[in-house]
Amino acid sequence: MSGDLSxxxxxxxxxxxxxxxxxxLVSGFECAxxxxxxxxxxxxxxxxxxxxxxxxxxxxxxxxxxxxxxxGEDGCVQGILETLDIPxxxxxxxxxxxxxxxxxxxxxxxxxxxAVPGGGLYDRFEAARDHVMAPPYVxxxxxxxxSVGVFLVFEGANRPPQELAQPxxxxxxxxxxxxxxxxxxxxxxxxxxxxxxxxxxxxxxxFYDYEAKYGEGGSTHVVPARMPSEDYDRALRMAExxxxxxxxxxxxxxDFRYDPVKRLLVLLEVNTxxxxxxxxxxxxxxxxxxxxxxxxxxxxxxxxxxRGAAGGxxxxxxxxx
Length: 321
Hints:
By secondary structure, the chain is α+β, with helices and mostly antiparallel strands. The protein is about 35% helix and about 25% strand.
């Protein structure tokens, strides 16, 4: 890492159209500030339907994609950037789309030998009528992140979440339902194919929902996680295997559940564009390894540019740093 992006124009995509717009605005703001700190010329872009036209006019050297959720994280924006021939951060079209679809990514991960929860996809109205499996279980949208639209159905619950059948439900007609695994919430960041650390997440609310992830005081993060060293190492290796199996690049974050009594460790999902807010897990793990936030963001941009140049993009431009 050279610590200098002087003279290079970076477009930071933030906001966007998904239910995770607000946290994306914060991620984008923080990353733009970090890039200015290392000398980059930064344009912040609140990504809308006119994104292709906006970027074609801006002609940035590289794009830092700080969008979260549908459209920004699921391969759609990546396709626009491929068409415009602009190097961009994080995963490509296929890996982004695959990781965003929980059912499909689980199938790929299971085939690669990564332990994942059971369960499957169900019609949301069917899931609202009656329990499709014995509680406790978790209901989540198949293609959303940041714990949006997630319900934990406890043992003894008389009926499933009725919100699933409401007209206000906007998270797709099918929902993923998985058995609830008691124990600890864990996260592992992977940078350049190598796992960074294991974070233990202790939510203040008892459930790691959207507010626990992004609200002030919503959760406590313990790095390194308090668990046996062999299970800690197993989480690191599983995150690396998942990153590779989905064809990811740059920085990702894998989320786990860990039952310390049964020593059961399962990977819930891989986030291809993890949050970069003041309370986010990836910057915390980087700091644990002695990597400042500015250096982390700079590496992501340099990695994106190097991959773009290697693929024939921006061949006439000087590489950052």
